Amino acid sequence: MSTETRQVLQGAQVVEYWENEQGQVHALAVLAKQPASNRFRQAILAADGEIKDLIQYASVTANNPLSALSALKRARSAQIRRDQLNQSLMIVADGRGIKSQYDQAAVDTLIRNALGTLPVTVQADDPSVKAELQRALTKLGVKTVAESEYVLRGFTDMAPVTEQQGWFWLRGSYELMLQRNETVMAKQRWPVKVSAADAGMVQQRARDELNQKLPGYLFELLSSETD
């Protein structure tokens, strides 16, 4: 069975089904435009209020950069949802939507600015891990300094390389922890699973994959919920 959806509109009612000569099933849905328009407008206005409150909290109320980043991350998700609602509104309101105070680019700029206010000291037992973390932080726009109240620690926990059916496998986990002075602000762990036909390449492939994913891991860590 193959299904496809172009746009989901809440409130639509399927009034008829039919099957063509190729056996494909079609459905006819109808949507009352004015009630749908009202629902979308209410949802958009609610999202606008949520976005404004989150940005206000991040800019004024948040007591540390991590709390601000978490609020901005939620604001970005709300903005994406809001934009989708506005597209739906334009479908049922003859192209007339509601202008937004913000857009995704504006929220992304706020996130980049917030990342730039977070000086971080990187610590790791493995010098290569430390270097990888510093590079990933730089890609995010985070300043790395010799001493800071915020300390990022990286840990790897890898099992020995194993061979299965001619392939060499490396499995384990990668853990990041952010501390503010002696308090753990955020801590997350991600699985590692890579393979290579050459035993000498499996470690390199693991490093390449980690370097590719590290900026995303770090943003996830830095924007996680915190007090």
Structural class: alpha+beta
Morphology: flat
Query: By CATH's scheme, which homologous superfamily of the largest domain applies?
Result: Lipoprotein like domain
Low-pLDDT sequence parts: 1-5
Give a short synopsis of this structure:
Helices cover 48% and strands 25% of the residues.
Name the features.
Double Stranded RNA Binding Domain, 5 helices, alpha+beta, 227 residues, 5-stranded mixed beta sheet, 2 domains, two-stranded antiparallel sheet, 48% helix
Structural commentary:
The chain has 227 residues and is α+β, with helices and mostly antiparallel strands. The chain has two domains: 33-116, no CATH class; 121-222, Lipoprotein like domain (Double Stranded RNA Binding Domain, 2-Layer Sandwich), CATH 3.30.160. The chain is 48% helix and 25% strand. It has helices at residues 33-61, 65-92, 104-116, 127-140, 199-222; strands at residues 13-19, 25-30, 121-123, 150-158, 162-164, 167-180, 183-196. The strands form two sheets. Strands 3, 4, 5, 6 and 7 form a five-stranded mixed beta sheet that branches. Helix 4 (127-140) crosses helix 5.
SSE topology sketch:
Elements: E1 13-19, E2 25-30, H1 33-61, H2 65-92, H3 104-116, E3 121-123, H4 127-140, E4 150-158, E5 162-164, E6 167-180, E7 183-196, H5 199-222
Parallel strand pairs: 3-4
Antiparallel strand pairs: 1-2, 4-6, 5-6, 6-7
